[in-house]
Amino acid sequence: MRRSVKARLILPMVMMLNACVPASHSEVASRAVIADSTLPPMKQFSGTRPATPPLSNARLAQDFLDLAFRMESGRALPVLTRFEGPITLHVAGKPPATLAPDLARLLARLREEAGIELRQVRNKGANITIQAISRNQIQQLLPQAACFVVPNVSTLDEYRRARRSPSTDWTRLTERRKLAIFLPNDVSPHETRDCLHEELAQALGPLNDLYRLPDSVFNDDNVHTVLTGFDMLILRAYYDPALRSGMTREQVAAALPDVLARINPKGGPVMAQDIRATPQVWGHAIQTALGRDVSRDTRLAAAQDALRIAQAQGWEDNRRAFSHYAMGRVIQMTDPAAAQTHYTAADRFYSRTPNTALHRTYVATQRAGYAVTQGDGATALAVIEPHLATAEASENAALLATLLLLKAEALQMQGRDSEARRVRLDSIGWARYGFGPDWAVRAKLREIASLNPQQGSASNLGG
Fold first, then answer.
1. 399: number of CA atoms within 13 Å, CB side?
2. Are 450 and 23 in contact (CB under 8 A)?
3. Distance (Å, rounded) from C-alpha 158 to C-alpha 180?
4. pLDDT mean across residues, the chain
5. pLDDT tier at 48 (50, 70, 90 boundaries)?
6. Is-contact 171 77, C-beta < 8 A?
7. The domain 47-267 is classified under which CATH number: 3.90.1300.10, 2.60.300.12, 1.10.580.10, 3.40.390.10?
8. Are 451 and 461 in contact (CB under 8 A)?
9. Is the pLDDT confidence value at 108 over 70?
């Protein structure tokens, strides 16, 4: 990753399904009639909010320091940097229609939960400028990035001119005054909002990602798509009056006990903790295993390396689970039964790790999808049902739509046709937010329908 940029990488961690065999005409006719007519209106989240689980102040202090004083690349940040005083935000470019309500909800949450006053303005020259541009424009500059944030610029032209200069080097900052967030405007509303939450959080606060954090957007596993209660607590600490730009790690560490005692009084006293860092070689192996532009053999070798490292480290947390998940993704086209063994292992390790209900929900799509390919509707329903509420509470429309579509197939297998139709109709509103344009929604409907062996040739889950 370039030193001048903090970017969200394109990592396929949404754990969606891909059918290896395209649906036949008869399958489409029997399953996706809805998609050939006018689609139901898009659904959007409005009232849900991630809860804040009990958090230890001792662990919070260590997490805060590791997030605030290091870049994801491993480079150390010499001092804390943040905005001092009122913060203004301006939206430029060609934003999609869904950005305004999603941004308004996020700003309200930041004010209420993190205590950050962030005022949106119409004029240029704001502290933070959100530039809505095409995915192609983003990837011309950063081929592996879905979106990114840069200090000391406001426009794409400014970034092009300054991208290799010291002014855009995060490690040289002493205070944040101006920066730009570049979001894609031609992807699904879900993906744009996903980028908005992570990049605005990085613009305001930590620049690092830690794989050890299960309940955070500050994690390259890309599981969480909206800011969590943990994230809001980190940001509240970041803007506590006891901290300021220019403080060293040692100065922040000395101030944190009082800060955390004040904002998280149930977290207990702050004591020194020895938390081993995640080896960078494991993170690289995971990204390679789940990468797009590498061969299957390279992905398989990387997945094997990740799992071997996780076992050698003695991990039994979300990182061990993630290693099994990556292996399952790599081998599921060639050995779907073995892939399910790894998904089951991932679910088992996630179940032992607090705050991983959403992770288990992602894995459930793979387990339920496999049950559908085996014609086992009862098992698919048993896997799906406990996770629907989690997907909705986490505001993950793509995940929720996929689970509902799988549920519809499972109901159809049991001869519950009217129920299946109602569930499928419900899923489409979420799919329009989660997957975007009508053609993508129709493709998802056909993809899930093609998993059902009762509708024609059986198909497996793709990698």
1. 29
2. yes
3. 10
4. 89
5. low
6. yes
7. 3.40.390.10
8. yes
9. yes
Q: Taking CA 462 as the corner, what is the angle to CA 16 and CA 397, rounded to the nearest 5 degrees?
A: 10
Q: Which pLDDT does position 46 carry in this prediction? A: 82
Q: Which of 333, 334, 446 is nearest to 25 (CA)?
A: 446
Higher pLDDT, residue 277 or 172: 172
Structure tokens, 279: 């080896």
- What would the mean pLDDT of 218-246 be, rounded to a whole number? 95
In this model, does residue 459 exceed pLDDT 60? no
Residue 399, token pair as written in the block = 């995940």
**The whole model's pTM is what?**
0.89
Supply the CATH classification number for the domain 14-43+278-455. Answer: 1.25.40.10
Q: How many CB atoms lie within 10 A of CB 144?
A: 15
Spatial distance between the Cα atoms of 161 and 158, rounded to a whole number of angstroms: 5
Distance, in Å, from the CA atom of 102 to the CA atom of 277, rounded to the nearest integer, reads 34
Residue type, 449: A
Who contacts 300 (Cβ-Cβ below 8 Å, separation ≥6)?
289, 330, 331
